[in-house]
Each structure stands twice: as structure tokens, then as C-alpha cells.
Design goal:
The chain is α/β, with parallel strands linked by helices and 285 residues long. Helix content is 45%, strand content 13%.
Length: 285
């Protein structure tokens, strides 16, 4: 199972959700791969793999290979076929048992235009296909925009989780997000399923997020039952470079993540956005 965590809006918790679900997966004995496609490298940092974040570094080492996701894409532009050995060469162990990382690199930014012009959009899927026997679960963190890398992730994945932070702007972003997912499914990945919308930073004591969530449920949007509250514990977890399940296993936020993991593991996909409410780009009230 390959899950991509994607939203075109930044600041909705993509990295936190991808990393913590992957960590819970690994903690339950599933060999889990975490793929970091965001040039910012926050997932890689969270997992203890700190890449330099400046483009000058990427330019200086243009011909070097140090085992990042950028190097995997770089190899696809060579004249030999990417084989199983080369696919696994870009995977790193993390400090956590059964959790592995394909780290990001600042070189991703330099390579994007050439990869797109040479139509390498299926190469991530091909690489992950070769790793199917090695991993039980794959989680893919994406950049907060629809670009070559996020498209590659949606093409490579079985399902997509959509983080949502109970904000009107985030709700508006769902309209174009839905259309982009459906277009990629129609053109490139007919098996891609919308696994559901993950409500993040939810405060049940505040009127606005409760009303917003109720409206979205009435519209029939594919919202997962488990919501994730705001907590300073997440920021502490980031600082310590330790996912919540290892950092504060008994904490309320951690237990909500465990509940979310169990929900997506045991249910059928929630389904698509209802066409009646989304065809015009304006929700029904």
C-alpha cells in the first residue's frame, strides 16, 4: 500500500501526518518507507537526515551521488535502466526500527524542469514498483503545490490522504485539489483512490471549525472520523526529531494518530468528492 499525503495549500500538516502515520506503521511491525519529495526537506529532518538546504551546494555536487531522492531521479536521466539495486541505493535507515527514508535534496529544485521536459513522470512509480517486496507500507510527503514531484507521487500511489486545517482558505483549496486529483486519475493512474480528508489542528471548543466541519459533512465530503487536535507536543516532537509514537506515546495527540492509522487501515476508502456539490466549484448549503 502506497499512500501520498497531499494538499496544494501549505501549512496544513502534510509532513507531520505523513511522518507520524509512517512511524506508527513501523512501530506495529510493518516495514515502512517514507519518501520525501519536498525540496524543503522537513520530513528528512524529522527523521534525522539533515540535508544542506542551499542551491549552491546542489550545484557544486551535481555529478555526485549521496543517496537522495534527487539522485534517484538523476539516474533516470542516464542511459541505463534503473534496476532493483539502484532503487534500494537511495533508501536510508532511520533511528527507528522498520522505518526507512528516501530523503529529499535541494537538487530537486534544479532538476524539475529537465525531468518534466523529458517526461520522467512515471519514474518514481517504476522505482517503487521494484521495492514492493521490501516494504509493507509506503508514505509519500509532497510539496505544497501541484508540480512535477507531487504529480509523480499521485501517479505512484494507491491512495491519497488530504490534510485539512479547518480554515476557509483551506476549504477553498479543496475545489481545485479535487479536480487535479481526478485529472491525474483519468490520465495516469486509474486506480488512485481518495482515502479521505484528515482534519488537522481541530479545536472542538471553537465555533468556527465545528460549524465548518459540520457543513462539509452535510455536503458529503469524504472526511475521516478521527480528528487531530493542536498541541505543542508536535512542535517538541519536531525539535527532537522523534515521531510522537516514540516521543510521547501516551499523549492525547499521539493516541489520535494511532486512531487515525487504525481507521485508514481497517476501512474501505471513503470515496470521492460528491459531484453534485463540486461540479460548479461552489459547495451546496
Amino acid at each position: 500500500m502506497r499512500r501520498v499525503v497531499f494538499n496544494q495549500k501549505g501549512g496544513v500538516g502534510k509532513t507531520s501526518i505523513a511522518c507520524n502515520l509512517a512511524a506508527i506503521s513501523a512501530s506495529q511491525g510493518l516495514r515502512t518507507l517514507l519518501v520525501d519529495l519536498d525540496v524543503q526537506g522537513n520530513t528528512s529532518y524529522y527523521m534525522g537526515n539533515e540535508q544542506p538546504l542551499n542551491l549552491q551546494y546542489a550545484q557544486d555536487r551535481d555529478d555526485d551521488i549521496d543517496g537522495t531522492i534527487a539522485d534517484l531521479f538523476k539516474q533516470t536521466m542516464k542511459f541505463f535502466k534503473l534496476d532493483d539495486r539502484r532503487s534500494s541505493a537511495f533508501i536510508h535507515e532511520t533511528p527507528f526500527e522498520d522505518l526507512f527514508l528516501m530523503p529529499s535534496s535541494p537538487a530537486l529544485k534544479l532538476m524539475e524542469r529537465e525531468l518534466e521536459s523529458r517526461y520522467k513522470i512515471y519514474k518514481l512509480r517504476d522505482a517503487l514498483d521494484r521495492l514492493d517486496d521490501e516494504f509493507d507500507r509506503v508514505y509519500i510527503d509532497t510539496p505544497p503545490c501541484l508540480n512535477f514531484y507531487s504529480r509523480s507521487a499521485l501517479i505512484a500511489a494507491n491512495s491519497v490522504l488530504i490534510p485539512f486545517d479547518c480554515d476557509s482558505f483551506s476549504r477553498q483549496a479543496l475545489y481545485s485539489l479535487r479536480n487535479n486529483i481526478l485529472e491525474i486519475r483519468e490520465d495516469h493512474n486509474p486506480d488512485l483512490e481518495i482515502e479521505g480528508i484528515v482534519v488537522n489542528q481541530f479545536n472542538p471548543q471553537a465555533r468556527l471549525p465545528v460549524e465548518l466541519l459540520d457543513e462539509m459533512k452535510r455536503e458529503g465530503l469524504p472526511i475521516l472520523e478521527t480528528t487531530l487536535p493542536s498541541s505543542v507536543k508536535m512542535k517538541e516532537s519536531h525539535q527532537r526529531q522523534t515521531p510522537l509514537i516514540y516521543f510521547a506515546g501516551a499523549h492525547k495527540l499521539t493516541q489520535q494518530y494511532v486512531s487515525l492509522f487504525n481507521e485508514i487501515e481497517t476501512q474501505e476508502c471513503v470515496g470521492d468528492f460528491p459531484p453534485a456539490s463540486w461540479e460548479s466549484g461552489v459547495p451546496i448549503h
